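Progress report, Aim 2. The chain analyzed during this reporting quarter is listed below.
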Amino acid sequence: MKRRAVLKALAVTSTSLLPITSFAKQMKEFTLPTPPVANRIAHSYSRHGYTITDPYFWLKDQGYPKVTEKPVLDYLKAENSYREAIMAPNQAVTDQLFAELKARVKDDDASVPQKDGAFIYQSRFAPQSQYRTWVRWPVGKTAADEAIILDEPTLAKGHEYFRLGGHSVSEDGRLIAYSTDTNGSERFTIRVRDLVSGRDLDDTIDGSIGAPVWQTDGKAFVWQELSPEWRSFRTRLHVLGTDPKNDAVLYEEKDTGFSVGVGLTTSKKWLVLNTGDNITSEVRLIPADNFKAAPRLVSARREGHQYEVDEREAVLYIRTNDHHINFRVATAPVATPEETHWQDLIAGSDDHYITGLESHKNVLVIEEKIAGLEHVRLRGYDGHEHRIAFPEPAYTTSVSNNPDYEIVQLRLSYASMITPTTVYDYDLMTRTLVSRKVQEIPSGYDKTQYATERLQAPGRDGKLVPVSIVYKKTRGTKAGPLHLYAYGSYGYAVPPNFSASRLSLLDRGFAYAIAHVRGGDDLGYGWYLQGKTHNRKNTFNDYVDVAKFLIEKGYTKAGDISCEGRSAGGQVMGAITNMAPELWRAVIADVPFVDVMNTMQDESLPLTPGEWPEWGNPIKNKADFDYMMSYSPYENVSAKAYPNMWISGGLNDPRVTYWEPAKWAAKLRHDKTDHNLLLVKINMGAGHGGKSGRYDSLLETAQEYTFLLKSFHMI
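Predicted C-alpha cells for the chain:
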C-alpha cells in the first residue's frame, strides 16, 4: 500500500467515556475518558541478520521537519486532549501549585550588573513579564543613564514561543548582533541593531545557531550555519550591508558527525574556531582584527583527543586529555601552536579533574573537581596558586560571566541543595568572597527547616555512587515519598543545586534525591566513560541500585519513589521502568530519548552521526546493534505492570524528535497490563526546552507536580 493510502487509513480512537474500575477505590464513582489508541501498521527493517518490527513507525511524519500528516497530528492532539481530561478534576491543585511557584519568583528580578569594556550591562524582568529586558549604561555613570539594548517582551509579541539566542556587542559598543527563535526549532534568525538609533539594520540571516562573533573593527561578524539536518557545519563571514547569500565560508566541516562553534579568547585577540563531536576536538585560530586571514590549526583531530584553548600575551593555555584522562593544562606559543611545542603547566592527576580554564591577563582561572566536589583554583603567572574556600561542605559552584581581560574580582555562582543561588565576586587581592546577590524567595524561605546529605550508594559491581538528598527536617529520614532525579550522559554532571520550585514537594513530605550515576563526570572523566557505549547499562544499574540503597536506609520504600529525567535522562527513565517497574510509583520522562535503535540508524536526523561516539553505531557495528537492542526502552517494552507515567515531547524539537515519546507511549499503552495513568503532553508550538516564558515554564512544573501528587493519592 502506498504511504498516502496508509496514512489515510489511520485512525485514532475517540474519547468516549468508559468506567475504569481500578480507580473506583480512590475516586468513588468516576468515569474517565478512554485513552487514545494508535493504530498498528505493519513495518519492519532488517539489519545484521535480524528483522525488527515497528508498528508505530507511521508516527514519524515523512515530511519532517515539517509535520503536516493529519493522522499524526490527530493522534498527538488526542493524547493531549486525553491528558487534559484526566487532569481536569485536579485543576484547582495545579492552580495552587502554580501560585506557590510564582510566589517564590521575584517578579521584578534583575541580574547583577557586570562591566564589559566601556559599559555596565544588566538584564531584568518587568513585573509579570515572561521575558527579560537587557540594558546598559556607561562606566562611571549610574543606572539612571541606562539605555535598553534588547527588549525581549517586544520581540516576543505575537509569538507562542520565543527564545533570545546568542547575542554580542561590537567592540566599539555601537552595534549588537542578536538571534531569535520563534517556534522552538532552534533555527535562529540573526539581526543587527544600531544601539545609537535603536533601529535594526537590513542585515538578516536565517538558519543559524550560537552567538555571532564580531571582528574587532565592528564591520563584520562570523556566524554558524545550520544544514537542513540541523547540523552546525559552516562558519561564514558576514560583512555589514552585503547580501548574506554571498557570505564567505571561513570553514566547512565535512564530517557529518562534527559540529562547528566559534568564540573569542578572553583577550579578545583571537577567534577560536572549534569543531568536534562528543569525544574529539580540533581548534583553529584566526586574528580577531582580520577574519579573512588564514586559520591557524592548533592540533589536528585524532579520535578521543579533546582540547580547548585560551590565550594570554601570545601564549596559549590548553586544557587537554592527551596525557591523562582527567586532563592537564599545557602552554604553547601562539606562533607555534602545534603539539610538539606543548609544555606541561599543570600535570593531569587521578585526584583532581580539570573541567575548564580562563586565562585573564593577571590570573589563570581553573575549574576542577576533587572527589566529586567543584573547586575554583586561581594561579598567578609566577606559579603561586590557591583554591577559593566556600562556606559549606557540599555545594555547587561555577565561574560566571567575566568578560574583561584584566580583572580585580572574579564573578562566581554558588548554591547548595538548601542554599539559594548566590552571586559572589571574589576579590583577588583580599581573597574574600563578596556576596552580590542571593536568590530572593518573596513568599519566604527558612533554610534551617531543611537538611541535606551526601551519601554513597554501593552499586552491584562495587562502585560507590554519590547521592545528594534534601528533605524537610520535620520529615527527617523516615520512610516516605521520595523523588529521584538523574541524567547520566555526555559527561554532564547534575549539580546539587537549589530549586525554589522543589520546595513544593519538600513541604508536602517528599525527599528529593539526585543519583550521580555513571555517564556523568561527577567523579572524573572516567566516571563518564563507564556509562557510555558498551558500558551504558551501568547508568541504569546505578539508578536502580541508588533507589534500593535509599529503601534499605529507610528514606523510602519500594513503590513510593517517583522518578524524573529529561532528554538522555529520559532514556534512563525508559530503561529503569522496564528493569524494575515495581520500585516506582510515578515516572516523569520529559522529551525522552527512548527510540534509540531507530534514531541511531537514521543518518538523516540532526544529531545521529554526532551521537555515534556516545552510544555506538548500530549501522556498521553488530556488537553495537546487539548492545543497544538489549536496553533500548522502546524495543524492550513488554506485557507487565508499569508505574504511573507522564511523558512529554515537543513538535518542533530537533534534539529528541516528537515521535520518540509518542511511539513509546503508544507501545506502552498497548502492552502494559496495569490501569495506572499514562499521560502524554506534546507541546505543539515548542521544542526541546518546553514552553519559553518563565511563568509558562512554571505552569508546566505545576502540572507535573500535580501528576505526582495524584499518583501518590495525595490529592
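The chain has 14 helices and 39 strands. The chain has a mean pLDDT of 92. These observations will guide the mutagenesis work planned for the next reporting period.
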